Amino acid sequence: MKKLIVLIGLLALAGSAYAGPASLIFVGFSPGGWQTGYPYWGTIDGGPVIDVMCDDWEHGGFPGQTWQANFTNLGTGNLSALRFNQLPQRLILYDEAGWLLLQAQVESQAQRTDINYAVWHIFDSNAPLLGNAPFWLASAQQEASLGFLGVDFYRVGIYTPVNQYDPNPNGPQELLTIVPEPGTLAMFGWGLIGLAGILRHKSNV
Known about the structure:
The chain has helices at 2-15, 90-104, 109-123, 133-145, 182-204; strands at residues 22-28, 40-44, 50-54, 66-73, 156-161, 175-178. With 205 residues, the chain is α+β, with helices and mostly antiparallel strands. It has one domain. Strand 2 (40-44) and strand 3 (50-54) form a beta hairpin.
């Protein structure tokens, strides 16, 4: 029984893992360097490597760099910790970027670079619109005009350096990622409970 309580406690702890700043390690870029855009790779608090998308044209970051980052779920609409939260129409801009990240999950690998350049341009008009990026930017703006019908922005997470307005161009960047769907987390939880049952059964044998 004690093991069951410990495992349930670990599950609750995992659910609150983003309550404070997370330790983000920037693992690396896709082949071809940062210019290839999404996906980049990183880890959060020593977890598995995840795909991340940079939305910040001005800031850098290099493989192996570690920084503290605040997590924001875009679906909450709370932009207080985000880097570009002082821009006009900031929620629409972040929703456009989030929508583009979601498109990168279903489009071919060949489109992902152009999608990322569209995201960069959303927050910085100096970022070039290469390849098919103008199409993706226009598509995001069109979706915004329609109110993003049926889009689940709770699937979009954003990691922002704790120094969110850092002017140093060599400082860390802001990164978007896909948040596991609630069903995935629920399956993880039931898996832990099932494992606890197995351990309890073995301890009684």
